[in-house]
Amino acid sequence: MLKSCKYCGGIHDRKYVCPSKPVRNKQPTYIDKFRCTRAWTNKSKQIRERDKHLCQVCIRKLHNTQQQYNFTNIEVHHIVPIVEDWNKRLDDDNLISLCSNHHKMADAGEIGRVELLEIAKAQELYVEQVKF
User: Fold this and answer.
1) For an engineered disulfide with 55, which of 25, 64, 75, 99 has Cβ 3.0 to 4.6 Å away?
2) How many CB atoms lie within 10 A of CB 58?
3) pLDDT band at 132 (very low <50, low <70, confident <90, very high)
4) CB-based contacts of 30-33 (< 8 A; 24+ apart in sequence)
5) Rounded distance between C-alpha atoms, residue 68 and residue 63, angstroms
6) What whole-number distance in Å separates Cα of residue 47 and Cα of residue 89?
């Protein structure tokens, strides 16, 4: 079916994408830029290694854990978000490894920050004890 194009004034098929249509480019924020840095890449690898590539909520059987030793889809979570405190973006005690399910729950506030901070501090203490 043909249709009048509001971008170039011509007549095109409905499914045709007119080259005159403006393209919206999302401008990356400072947080997006930070996530592409070498510092963040190295720190996220370090945190995953510290946590043995396991979700720290699943391993403690908290918040409807379905698999205790979950090592799939592990993401590093900022307990205190970067937007709230830029200076804590690379602090070990502010970062924790979570599976994607628990990461979504933490972002939604279903898992409390205090609880996550305690888990992260416990991991830091455990790693220090193992070193000696």
Assistant:
1) 99
2) 23
3) low
4) 31/82, 31/83
5) 11
6) 12
> Using an 8 Å Cβ cutoff, are 99 and 74 in contact?
yes
Q: What is the DSSP letter of 54?
A: S
The pTM for the full model equals 0.75
- 3-class secondary-structure state, position 79: coil
Q: Which two tokens stand for residue 118?
A: 């305690």
Q: Which residues of 37-52 are buried (b: 16+ CB within 10 A; e: fewer)?
A: eeebeebbeebbebbe
Cα 17 → chain centroid: 33
> In this predicted model, what pLDDT tens digit does every residue of 56-113 receive, in sequence order?
999 988 888 788 888 888 999 999 999 999 999 999 999 999 999 999 999 999 999 9
